[in-house]
## 1
Amino acid sequence: MGNLRLGLVGCGAIAQWHATALQHAQRTTVTACVDVVSANADKLAEITGGTACSTIAKALEIGVDALAILVPHHLHEDLVTQALEAGVHVALEKPMAPTLEACERILATAARHPDRVFMLTENAQYWPEVVMAQKLIAEGAIGKLVTARSWHNFGITPEFYPSDESWRFQQSAAGGGVALDTGSHWMRPLRMILGEIDEVVAVTGRLWEKMEGESMVRSLCLFKSGVVASFDVILATGAVGLQPHFQFTGTTGEIVISALGEVRLFDGKDWQGTVVGRGNYMDSYKGVWQDFEAAILDGTPLAADARYSLGEVAAANAIVRSAQSKKWEKVW
Ligand SMILES: NC(=O)c1ccc[n+]([C@@H]2O[C@H](COP(=O)([O-])OP(=O)(O)OC[C@H]3O[C@@H](n4cnc5c(N)ncnc54)[C@H](O)[C@@H]3O)[C@@H](O)[C@H]2O)c1
């Protein structure tokens, strides 16, 4: 039992991942599981020990100090506003909202409740291999950064794309394609290590007819530092190979993060490089909840404030604009 009573609003695919991670948040107890589909709420209630219900109002009656909003993108603004106005702490899944205007409205609502923590749960902020690479690069392990590469290829799974009617295929619900959705988890590490992006140039593709947004992005990001990184996301139609997630090239060496969680430093000592650490993407979700409970219970600043996540929304927008204009597009 912990000190923070948390309600999960939206008991779908990611809620199950969060429920597993929450077992490691020692001071958080899930007390309510809210879903408009009662079977989904019941399933999460069984996993977490919380009480199933169908509205935020019911969750407040059950007793919550904080709510995690884990619903499709077009519902974020309404539900996060309800939660913030109810006076509880809020953790909201990425992207904050499908448009920057909606994001600003949400941030304005959060600003009216400064004594409540509002977190945007971009789990990549806590991705162990990324945090390791960030530290090594800051310590000068590969000299000055020259360029970087980010690669995310994945397939359609029943877990996240349960049917042809999945909200992720619909522009009106998802607000975009893979750049806005899963791409954020690969964009955040680039921003953590390279800083802010100035411009992007991109080509996008629709590999899946049933998906209204783009299912493929091949792009270059020019960072304000002058460094250029490639950013590729492919929702493949077939099997995918294991490519490194990230490659950071510096003036004296390289760091490669493999798809299997290995962080390998190439610093000239061994042509095969040296494995300097191993991590696990799934552990990034533990970091989310440890950060959230520390922010609420100890007053510790979040690893990244919610506004920081707008950088991923703006970059995704610029990618889509560039694919249409066939030109470099400013992110802001
Ligand atoms: N961090 C990550 O790695 C990651 C991975 C997947 C999804 N996500 C994000 O999580 C969010 C949810 O995605 P998902 O894949 O779990 O979707 P999902 O469709 O599997 O689950 C959404 C759930 O919300 C419920 N719901 C819909 N309207 C509701 C309402 N008004 N009140 C309560 N519940 C409601 C649905 O019934 C469903 O159970 C999205 O923002 C998505 O981008 C993040």
Note: Residues 127 and 282 are 8 Å apart (CA to CA).
## 2
Amino acid sequence: MIQPITGMKNAFDLSGKTAVITGGNRGLGFGIAQAMAESGANIAILCRDTKKAAEAVEALSVFGGTYRSFSCDVTSLPSVRAAVEAVCEAFGGIDILVNNAGVSCTKALLDMDEDLTDWYKVVNTDLNGCVHMTYEAAKRMRDAGKGGCIINITSNAGFMVNHGQPMSPYSCAKAAMNHFTKCMAVELGEYDIRVNGIAPGFTNSELSVHIPKENLSYINKQTVAGRFGEPIEVGALAVFLASPAAAQITGTVQVIDGGYMLRC
Ligand SMILES: NC(=O)c1ccc[n+]([C@@H]2O[C@H](COP(=O)([O-])OP(=O)(O)OC[C@H]3O[C@@H](n4cnc5c(N)ncnc54)[C@H](OP(=O)(O)O)[C@@H]3O)[C@@H](O)[C@H]2O)c1
């Protein structure tokens, strides 16, 4: 059983925890890595672009913990297995897993090629990547017997059909991740592993720079907060969900979209 906090001292502290963040080399993943590093966690970044990962590790070094990157393609179970093994060897275990790696696609189903390449790419990365990582990391959390925390980065697109941009593989993968979050919260609960999701709305990153200019003013008008989110804001929510303060929170998906969905 996960014990409750008794006061606010250290309630948001992640000191001594090891956090694995897929896609932590840039965008939202780096915002989460920075927020967790600033809150005391040691960080393992898993991604494919090792040069960008080395830059991210260098940027984190000012926070004084242990930070490393590991090459990993989340679409490949053998690659995930090898990376998780390497992390456990280097850090002695995993306390926090953030399934953040993701790709998007703005193409209507009938515009896709004969092999549905775009469909499989998105589903294999966003949904199956999350499943691969959860399978490998949760086994180690269970065997270590110290509990753990898993955070799945989904999207508000998992709750609605986006205006102006066909993105069915992305929306469906994110909706499935939302439900996977609930299923895993129940299945892994007996090992004191909490599982939650974060569903961001439009947030500044390399993924969001591909949004057509003509859509930007619509999006900002539609968003109650009047602007895109920042990666560090998603990071702050991830820190809360991973912290002792969130001991009673599992199986939820927290929307952080500046109120965008309220007007949909
Ligand atoms: N930006 C937004 O507006 C927004 C809104 C809602 C949700 N999200 C979600 O937030 C997450 C991060 O998105 P972002 O905006 O930060 O995008 P981004 O800047 O394009 O970053 C995507 C990250 O995913 C990693 N990645 C992609 N494919 C991978 C693979 N096969 N194996 C391992 N890593 C892989 C990339 O690293 P490598 O290329 O080095 O592998 C990169 O670090 C995604 O799940 C996205 O769906 C974003």
Note: The helical segments are 27-38, 50-60, 77-91, 117-144, 168-189, 213-222, 231-242.
